[in-house]
């Protein structure tokens, strides 16, 4: 029995990055031997075990072959005869197909170290094209390591293009896709993920609504970058730069989908794109079964982001409607994330990345003004039921009028 550290732990050590998760491969062992040493089995499809003390995952060396469509369409074979090189060749990228023993002696049959030095994301073998999930994984690694100047090898990009055109991407489950998308959006440069997907043709398969934004112009006075797709990438880049959470990043990606529906004869204006985009945002949300908080914020940002930009001009009644829509009294965090998404949208414009966004503090102040309205005095006056609701609304409107006047003074 020989045990090797493999994959990301080896890659990140060689890159000088912190190693978090460690994967182990066991060569020359049987399931019975692992159980005898106290390892606990966890793999339903192939033999993976948890270490009796550390709890880390140890997998028996295995080979795999394509047996059906999609990510799960593989047959695995594990036995003591499977070599380390045979196990490594089934991996996606050369930089993930290295192993080291307990003395840090490197096993690198597919030149992963060379590709690390060349800053290349390159597939290990033609079997790469058997797993459609790898298109998303490579794009995610491109986003992760863009800051280190990594690029996707041209021959790997070609395989990704073939996979995108094959129909295999459509066999991916919503859960597996979302796992990769959500992880990619939380990388330092998530816009690179979208760029790579677009370059290999996967974006128009997975998110045609986002792909449709490229080549759609906007008024240059408001958007010096003009192209709506380029703007979306910039907004996503700003969201990452300002360390926004996943909910905000997802909303940033989808906020302008309605502009993809504008007839060409109306370009570069996009009248009512906020409402037109809602059905598209809903479709993307459902396609990937995004978490509820991501879905809700994306829809709200899509519908109201122009309200955010025009906050200083809004009538108190419109401002109140906005606050009610977000339920700022019970869910203050969601309104804070809306403000963040609006600010990223405003900053995601060429040459305006550092521009101040006074709307943010104004909206926070408006929410606080509305929240200060006390319910108890209204109850004491005898208001109840629908009448109480109307009375609260009147008082909040009064508070917002006072707030607006004070802010304008």
UniProtKB/TrEMBL annotation:
Catalysed reaction equations from the record: a tRNA precursor + 2 CTP + ATP = a tRNA with a 3' CCA end + 3 diphosphate; a tRNA with a 3' CCA end + 2 CTP + ATP = a tRNA with a 3' CCACCA end + 3 diphosphate
Binding site for Mg(2+): 21, 23
Residues noted as binding ATP in the record, renumbered to the chain: 8, 11, 91, 137, 140
Taxonomy, superkingdom: Bacteria
Domain HD intervals: 228-329
MF terms (GO), sorted A to Z: ATP binding; CCA tRNA nucleotidyltransferase activity; CCACCA tRNA nucleotidyltransferase activity; cyclic-nucleotide phosphodiesterase activity; magnesium ion binding; phosphatase activity; tRNA binding
Extra information: A single active site specifically recognizes both ATP and CTP and is responsible for their addition.
Assigned protein family: Belongs to the tRNA nucleotidyltransferase/poly(A) polymerase family. Bacterial CCA-adding enzyme type 1 subfamily.
PANTHER family reported in the protein's UniProt record: MULTIFUNCTIONAL CCA PROTEIN (PTHR47545)
Domain notes: Comprises two domains: an N-terminal domain containing the nucleotidyltransferase activity and a C-terminal HD domain associated with both phosphodiesterase and phosphatase activities.
Entry-linked Pfam families: HD (PF01966), PolyA_pol (PF01743), PolyA_pol_RNAbd (PF12627)
EC number: 2.7.7.72, 3.1.3.-, 3.1.4.-
InterPro entries, A to Z: CCA_bact, HD/PDEase_dom, HD_domain, NT_sf, PolA_pol_head_dom, PolyA_RNA-bd, tRNA_CCA-adding_enzyme
Cofactor: Mg(2+); Ni(2+)
Database matches in Gene3D superfamilies: Beta Polymerase, domain 2, cca-adding enzyme, domain 2
Cofactor note: Magnesium is required for nucleotidyltransferase activity.
SMART domains registered for this protein in UniProt: HDc (SM00471)
Function field: Catalyzes the addition and repair of the essential 3'-terminal CCA sequence in tRNAs without using a nucleic acid template. Adds these three nucleotides in the order of C, C, and A to the tRNA nucleotide-73, using CTP and ATP as substrates and producing inorganic pyrophosphate. tRNA 3'-terminal CCA addition is required both for tRNA processing and repair. Also involved in tRNA surveillance by mediating tandem CCA addition to generate a CCACCA at the 3' terminus of unstable tRNAs. While stable tRNAs receive only 3'-terminal CCA, unstable tRNAs are marked with CCACCA and rapidly degraded.
Originating species: Pseudomonas mandelii
Record-level GO BP terms: RNA repair; tRNA 3'-terminal CCA addition
Subunit comment: Monomer. Can also form homodimers and oligomers.
Identification of the protein by name: Multifunctional CCA protein
Keywords, comma-separated and alphabetical: ATP-binding, Hydrolase, Magnesium, Metal-binding, Multifunctional enzyme, Nickel, Nucleotide-binding, Nucleotidyltransferase, RNA repair, RNA-binding, Transferase, tRNA processing
Binding sites annotated in the UniProt record for CTP: 8, 11, 91, 137, 140
Keyword Zinc attached: no
